């Protein structure tokens, strides 16, 4: 049995980005290297890299991985592209600059919650309370600011601490008391709705709505970066991505391992650069719907409207990127991340390897609720108020849908942080596109139906790819 105090297992990343971990007596992680598969077997086809570093070998290996059930975020990315094309054709205003910025800010809150849910889903668990936990934490923040005039750093810190406590309670009940996470979080889901309402009203009334007056908090998901800062962000994104790719390339070359073809790396970096700079250019344009002064009718009266300027990348974008980078590093480059994948892939094997399974399980619920707190703050920042109605079932479904649609498995052991962002984009495009396309009382109904169908398709792809991988011996 492996000793948990031994040095961390080394990370072995193949030329296509698949990661595994090699220890002294065994392997933990998404890819196992315990024994060599038989030549010609499906396992060998799905896990080995063809000889050579040519583009054709890279493409062949990638296609073999797809056939072996390793779909990753490909279905979500394909669906996102198709949805954007369809909505752009059916609704010309969908591809407008104002709508682009609107989707970024509206979709941010659920994406933060989805990032936390990725940790829980990697263990094959679920957190049904994440939506109302976000509401409780946001309510704690705004109550401290409005009722006690606490500065925003203290209020936000208290909100995140509340999330940590909530996550610890859920994790403790699941890991130590052995109550299924579905039951625990369903109970918290019901209780937190009342807790959020009680805190919002200070024990009085039933409205549960508090306006956020702090300009800094409102600016998180409401203000835009200066034009120059947007371009700087684009340079950092492209430069950082290129640096990571080439450093990994050099590291593998020094170890005598297969590497990605330079042409493939150049294509990936180029694609990221084109997409990033085009997005920043679009967001830096004036996308206000009132770009020129004029008049409009309000309550039967003609009112003069001043020209408005709305340009720049929303501040919430670099915040999302920062969390994405941190959590991606944690999952892919730390011992803790390897343990999360190991427990999610095979709990009993992880326990026998000396991994503290209960501690890992509690920690993922803590991270999930802490991210729910941040998501709740962002949702409040977007609408500049905290209302119990803005959280709960819909918020939870959007977040869970984002993680699963993005490619994180419901069965545990498979998923990446990018899944939350890609899936969140898909969900937001559906909601935004359907709200513009379908008007009237049926708009919400159609949104729910379409989102449910897409979520079911994502779950079906997950189940089928897992079965395919199982039949391949993975």
From TrEMBL:
Parts of the chain that traverse the membrane: 72-91, 103-123, 130-150, 156-175, 182-200, 228-248, 260-283, 312-331, 360-379, 391-411, 418-438, 444-464
Biased composition (Low complexity): 17-29
UniProt keyword terms in alphabetical order: Cell inner membrane, Cell membrane, Membrane, Sugar transport, Transmembrane, Transmembrane helix, Transport
Membrane-related topology note: Multi-pass membrane protein
UniProt xrefs under CDD domains: TM_PBP1_transp_AraH_like (cd06579)
Cited function: Part of the binding-protein-dependent transport system for D-xylose. Probably responsible for the translocation of the substrate across the membrane.
Region (Disordered): 1-34
This protein's name: Xylose transport system permease protein XylH
UniProt cross-references to Pfam families, sorted A to Z: BPD_transp_2
Cell compartment(s), UniProt: Cell membrane
InterPro entries: ABC_transp_permease
Main subcellular localisation: membrane
GO molecular function: transmembrane transporter activity
GO CC field: plasma membrane
């Amino acid at each position: 049995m492996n000793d948990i105090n031994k040095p961390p297992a080394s990370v072995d990343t193949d030329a296509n980005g698949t990661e595994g971990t090699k220890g002294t007596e065994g392997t933990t992680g998404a890819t196992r290297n315990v024994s060599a598969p038989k030549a010609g077997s499906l396992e060998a086809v799905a896990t080995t890299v063809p000889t050579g570093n040519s583009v054709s070998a890279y493409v062949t290996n990638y296609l073999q991985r797809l056939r072996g059930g390793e779909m990753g975020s490909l279905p979500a990315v394909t669906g996102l592209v198709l949805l954007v094309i369809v909505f752009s054709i059916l609704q010309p205003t969908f591809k407008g600059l104002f709508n682009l910025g609107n989707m970024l800010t509206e979709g941010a809150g659920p994406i933060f919650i989805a990032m936390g849910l990725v940790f829980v889903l990697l263990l094959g668990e679920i957190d049904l309370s994440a939506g109302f936990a976000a509401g409780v934490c946001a309510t704690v923040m705004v109550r401290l600011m409005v009722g006690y005039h606490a500065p925003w750093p203290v209020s936000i810190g208290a909100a995140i601490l509340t999330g940590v406590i909530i996550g610890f309670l859920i994790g403790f009940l699941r890991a130590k008391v052995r109550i299924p996470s579905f039951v625990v979080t369903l109970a918290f889901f019901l209780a937190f709705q009342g807790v959020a309402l009680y805190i919002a009203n200070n024990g009085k009334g039933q409205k549960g709505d508090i306006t956020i007056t702090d300009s800094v908090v409102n600016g998180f998901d409401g203000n835009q970066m200066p034009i120059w800062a947007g371009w700087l962000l684009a340079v950092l994104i492209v430069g950082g991505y290129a640096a990571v790719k080439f450093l990994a390339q050099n590291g593998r070359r020094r170890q005598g391992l297969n590497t990605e073809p330079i042409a493939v790396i150049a294509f990936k970096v180029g694609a990221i650069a084109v997409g990033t700079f085009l997005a920043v250019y679009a967001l830096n344009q004036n996308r206000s719907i009132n770009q020129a002064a004029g008049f409009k009718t309000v309550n039967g009266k003609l009112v003069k409207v001043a020209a408005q300027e709305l340009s720049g990348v929303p501040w919430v974008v670099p915040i999302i990127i920062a969390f994405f980078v941190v959590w991606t590093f944690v999952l892919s480059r730390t011992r803790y991340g390897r343990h999360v994948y190991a427990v999610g892939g095979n709990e009993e094997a992880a326990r026998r390897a000396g991994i503290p399974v209960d501690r890992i399980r509690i920690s993922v619920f803590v991270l999930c609720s802490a991210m729910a707190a941040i998501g709740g703050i962002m949702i409040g920042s977007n609408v500049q108020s905290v209302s119990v109605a803005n959280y709960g079932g819909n918020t939870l479904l959007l977040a869970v849908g984002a993680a699963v649609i993005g490619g994180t498995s419901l069965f545990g052991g498979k998923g990446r942080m990018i899944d939350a962002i890609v899936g969140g984009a898909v969900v937001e495009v559906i909601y935004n596109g359907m709200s513009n396309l379908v008007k009237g009382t049926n708009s919400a109904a159609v949104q729910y139906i379409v989102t449910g169908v897409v979520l079911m398709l994502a779950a079906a792809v997950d189940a089928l790819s897992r079965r395919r991988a199982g039949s391949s011996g993975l």
